[in-house]
Every structure is written in C-alpha cells, then in structure tokens.
Design brief:
The chain is mostly helical. The chain has helices at residues 7-17, 20-33, 37-69, 72-105, 107-120, 125-139, 142-171, 178-202, 205-213, 220-248, 259-287, 290-293, 295-324, 334-344, 369-382, 392-407.
C-alpha cells in the first residue's frame, strides 16, 4: 500500500488537477450573490436616516408632552387676560412719560410714537385704544393724572408677577418672596417703559434715512431697503425684549441669566413674533369681521386673540429654554401631580424620567443639600419608617436630633 497523504497535501493535489477556468466558474455563483459595496453603503445611510428621524420624532413627542403637561395653552389664556389688563396702564405710562418729553421737543415726534404703537396692535383696535388714551391724558387734571399714573404702575407691574408664576411652572421654580417679587415687577415695568418707546422710535429711522435720498418715494430699491431695515430693527427689538424677560423674570441664579442659557428660546420667540405680526392681519381680515360679532364683541375678540397667541409664543420660548437646560416632561399634567401627591402621598405616576436629577434643579437654596437630606430623613423616621441614612455618623446625628425633639424644650 502507498503512503497515506495528509488532508492538506490531498487538497493541494486536487487544486493542481482542476483547470483555472473551472475555478473561476465555481467562484462565479458566489460573486453573483455578493451585494455591491454601493448598495450596502446606501442601505447604511438609509438606516441612519431612519434612526435619526425616529429619534427626532420621539424627541418632538416628548417636548409636546411637556408643553401640554405644563399647561402652557391654559396659562396663555391667563396671560392674555393679564396682557389686556396691563395694556392700558402701560400705554398710559408710556404716553404720559415719553409723550410729555416728546411734546416739548416736537409734536410730530409725539404723533409718530402714537402711530407706531397703534400699528403694533391689531388693525383698527390699536388706533381706537391709543387715540382714546391720548385724549384722556390731555383732558385729565393734575391730581387725577397723578392718581391714574400711580394706579397704572401698580396694575402694570402685576403682569410680571403673573409671568413669574407661569415661568415657575415651566422651569420648576419656587416664586420670590413678596418684597422681592414686587421689586422685580417694578424693575421690569420701568425697563419696559424705557425700551418700548425707544424701539418704536428707532423703527422710524430706516424710512427717514431713505427719505433723505428719495424724498418722493419713487425708488423701489429705497422702499425695499426701508422694509428690510424695519424688519431688522423689529427682530433686534424682539431679541432684546424676550431675552431680558427670560433672563430676569424667572427666579434663577445669575448663571442662568446669560445669553448662552437663553438664546435658543429667545431667537425662536423673536422670529415667531415677526411672522405673527405679518400673518395676524390676514387672519383678522378673513375670520374676524365686525359684521360677524358686532363692533364691541369684535373688538374684544380681536384683542384677546392677539394677546393669546402672543402669550403662546412667549411661553413656547420659555419651554425651549427649559428643554435646552435638560428639563423633561412630567408623567402627568398638573391636576394629576396634585392628585398623586395630595391624595396618595406618592410620586408614582407623577414624576417624569428626569425627576430628581441635577438638571431639574435650576434654583439655589439657602440650606445645604446635606441639611435638607437630614431634615427629610428625620421627618421619615418620625412617621415610623426606617432611617434612610447609610453613614453611621449621619444616622447618629439624626438619632440625637430625634431624641432632642422627643424630650421637648428645656424647662
């Protein structure tokens, strides 16, 4: 018998016997079944786009849940009513303060300010409001005017207290104490009284500048440049007013009052306000005809709807800033949270996915975290639950405090 060949040697011998063409024909079916590289790359890109789109839809759904659970559409109705209540006092203060200064300089400047304020409000209603307030100011006596100004300061500042309460729900914040809250409200009212007239007067500059070169207004380029300049000034004004509101009204520490922490919601709110100012007259012309409601009812409907959507824009910008800070949706809305806490003394079914995490806490506390933890542990032990403290020295400290409370005050 011949020598037995190893499997590897036998495989090599067979490979020498098979012609080259045979090997190519045997490999052809495998090559035909192989997927092209371009097709695999295209499938990988499609899968990546699908995953990105699914993640985006999930994020959008979570954000929608947050704004619904925070009740921003209900809060917008509350805010719209307070906008309406503060409108007349704030306009009275602007016309009484800036109007008096402008009247000494130029009657045309005062008239320009009134016209710009009227144009910022819905068509038809703005002229009625501003003209009536201006006539009331001119007819008022000195003492009556002083009383009206004082009442306007009080009523106008209430708007910012309501704003703080709305932002407190969105950012999960406690409100300021009464003194600091009123100081903030008066400071914001004074700031708005200084900035709003300046913004309205600055909006006239592009048209006046173009009029120097084109007095008759026949140039199409001049008209386009004037409109672009007006839109830029309106955008900058929106960025300024929304940015200051988001930075100063919520009760947060200084590091949350920077542009870096508030720019996303500010930019979105300012752009939406520009679009809203352009589209609301079309909505008013199409759906809010005085013949449909009557003159007085149409006036109320128009002004309330205008302020409602303005409030939605302002609260939506705050929600975007809250989301950018890392805060997420709760498990249920405000009535559900109150029911879980008060009726069942539990957070089950109320706390969201990020409850208790550091990004949910945007507010400083005077007491240290350890002090708050010890107080919570003592309250738990008093109710008969086991001590949650793990470290021996903190357990001993809690025990001493509990025995001291049990013994009562010294005689």
């Amino acid at each position: 018998m011949g020598e037995t060949q190893s499997p590897s040697a036998l495989q090599a011998s067979l490979a020498e016997l098979i012609p080259e063409t045979g090997r190519l024909e045997a490999a052809a079916p495998l090559a035909a079944n192989a997927e092209p590289l371009d097709s695999r790359a295209s499938r990988g890109r499609t899968g990546m786009l699908w995953r990105s789109g699914r993640t985006g839809l999930t994020t959008l759904g979570a954000f929608w849940t947050k704004i619904n659970n925070d009740w921003i559409f209900n809060l917008a109705g509350l805010l719209a009513y307070n906008f309406l209540m503060a409108l007349f006092p704030i306009l009275l203060l602007i016309l009484a303060g800036f109007g008096l200064v402008l009247r000494t300089l130029s009657l045309s400047a005062e008239r320009t300010l009134e016209l710009r304020i009227a144009n910022a409000l819905p068509t038809g209603t703005g002229v009625i409001i501003v003209t009536g307030l201006a006539a009331h100011l001119k007819a008022s006596a000195g003492l009556l005017l002083l009383v009206a100004v004082v009442v306007s300061v009080v009523l106008g500042s209430r708007l910012f207290i309501v704003l703080e309460n709305c932002f407190g729900i969105i950012f999960r914040l406690r409100g300021r104490d009464t003194l600091r809250q009123n100081a903030m409200a008066l400071g914001m009212l004074l700031l708005y009284l200084l900035l709003v007239p300046l913004v309205f007067l600055l909006s006239v500059l592009p048209a006046d500048f173009i009029a120097l070169f084109d007095p008759r207004g026949r140039s199409l380029l001049g008209g386009a440049l004037s409109e672009v300049g007006r839109l830029c000034i309106a955008l900058l004004a929106g960025l300024l007013l929304f940015g200051l509101t988001y930075a100063l009204v919520p009760h947060r520490p200084l590091r949350w009052r920077t542009w870096q922490q508030n720019w996303k919601g500010t930019v979105v709110a300012a752009v939406l306000l520009l679009l809203y100012e352009a589209l609301f007259p079309l909505y008013q012309l199409r759906f809010l005809q005085p013949d449909n409601y009557g003159s007085v009812a149409a006036f109320a409907v128009v002004i309330l709807l205008f302020f409602y959507f303005l409030a939605v824009i302002m609260l939506l910008g705050a929600e975007i800033n809250s989301w950018a800070a890392g805060q997420r949706e709760t498990a249920t809305d405000l009535p559900g949270i109150l029911h879980a806490v008060q009726a069942h003394r539990t957070l089950r079914g109320a706390a969201g996915p990020t409850a208790g995490q550091p990004q949910e806490e945007l507010q400083p506390h005077t007491r240290s975290r350890m002090t708050r933890y010890l107080n919570a542990a003592i309250r738990r032990v008093r109710r008969g639950y086991p001590s949650p403290l793990k470290l021996s020295r903190y357990r001993a400290l809690a025990g001493r405090l509990r025995h001291r409370d049990a013994d009562g005050p010294p005689h």
